[in-house]
Orotidine 5'-phosphate decarboxylase
Amino acid sequence: MASLHHFSDRLHAAIRAKGTPALVGIDPRLKSLPAPVRDAATGPTELDRAADAFERFGKGLIDAVADLVPAVKPQSAFFEELGPPGVAALSRIIVHARAAGLIVVLDAKRGDIGSTAGAYARGLLGGAEPERPDLADALTVNPFLGADTLEPFVSVAKERGAGLYVLCKTSNPGSGAFQGVTQDGRSVTQRVAAEIDRLSQETVGEGGYGIVGAVVGATYPAELAELRAAMPSAPLLVPGYGSQGGTAADVAGAFDGAGLGALVNSSRAVNFAFAAEPYAAEFGPTRWQQASAAAARAMVDDLKAATS
Ligand SMILES: O=c1ccn([C@@H]2O[C@H](COP(=O)(O)O)[C@@H](O)[C@H]2O)c(=O)[nH]1
């Protein structure tokens, strides 16, 4: 049996249980939240009220999709933007998601010199204290400072049974400007991939995948397939499906023969489904959770073609 202390083994058990690699992002923006959520929010200051709205929305979204998908990905930036009340709301959303049995990937894209990286790793994944329910199962990490700066994240993640997703080929239109720079025939992305491959092989679990994975955008399908082959034991986190234009066909190259090895993220298209067709007419802001569930269900169905 796969070890439940090993991130990829846990992740794959969750993917198998739900029958899908669909990952729902939690990316709240105050202006885009359904009016009933904004109206219900309370608090002494504007920031407190915004954080309360984010918390209601995040927990409501989790309740809407928990039976459908194996994992959620809160985007830390939106919570950090609100200061301490936002960060506290994020912690409670993580507790809620984990209590619902979901794997939580915190998208915070941290990275710094080694000694500081250790503090980020312990702060976001946990230190010497017993396991905390307010911390994520996995974290996104920025490798720009060099391979040595990944080590503290890896050692904390190993100890905590957590996972890491290292930025490798990001989904944004300008990702090639730095990541595509080539020296001696190898791009920065390929060099980062080689390091991820090494770290994933070093941390491989019973299911054949390591705890160190890669972020590779759905918006670059050819590179996605090449990078899958270059890092056979690295779990992939694939953003860019949905709102950024990535399709099920684009992400097909992310998976192994068993349909495992990757999570495909969609944030805005699921979060704000109530405000866009085809769901707006049927559901609207008062039934926003049903709209999000319908959008998540459509994503799950759509991805079946990519994984079979
Ligand atoms: O290369 C990357 C890395 C991270 N992201 C993040 O994923 C979501 C995508 O949101 P959508 O609404 O589905 O476009 C968001 O949190 C990004 O910060 C990414 O898009 N690309």
The first helix runs from residue 7 to 18.
